[in-house]
Design brief:
The chain is mainly alpha-helical. It has 4 helices and 3 strands, in the order E-H-H-E-H-E-H. It has one domain. Helix 3 links the parallel strand 2 and strand 3. This is 2-oxoglutarate/Fe(II)-dependent dioxygenase.
Length: 116
């Protein structure tokens, strides 16, 4: 996996004051200053455990550029990462997918037009 989005870890009330505040997922997604996932959007199986900031506890990012490689081992690795992300997280972020920025913008604009 290429990189990971860190979780916000708040060890003190002062740290919590600097965390992004959001009233909805839409507001959170549109937040330009978001650098980590706020703790109210995280889940842990142990309620006494705080959100971790370790890379293995971050949203998986799948790099699709390896799928254009002629090396079957690279294909296999990406496919394994994708399967792991689906099984353990249920979602992931894809990078280097080849979809033009203009098309992604048009899609976001069309979705905003539909939802607004």
């Amino acid at each position: 996996m290429a990189a990971a989005t860190p979780l916000c870890v708040h060890s003190s009330p002062e740290t919590h004051l600097h965390a992004p505040k959001s009233t909805s997922i839409k507001t959170l997604a549109e937040s330009h200053g978001l650098t980590c996932i706020p703790p109210n959007y995280t889940y842990t199986t142990n309620p006494h455990e705080s959100a971790a900031s370790e890379p293995e506890d971050s949203i998986p990012i799948i790099d699709f550029s390896s799928l254009t490689s002629s090396d079957p081992d690279q294909w296999s690795q990406v496919i394994q990462e994708l399967g792991k992300a689906c099984q353990e997280w249920g979602f992931f972020m894809v990078v280097n997918h080849g979809v033009p920025e203009s098309l992604m913008k048009e899609m976001v604009d069309a979705c905003n037009g539909f939802l607004i």
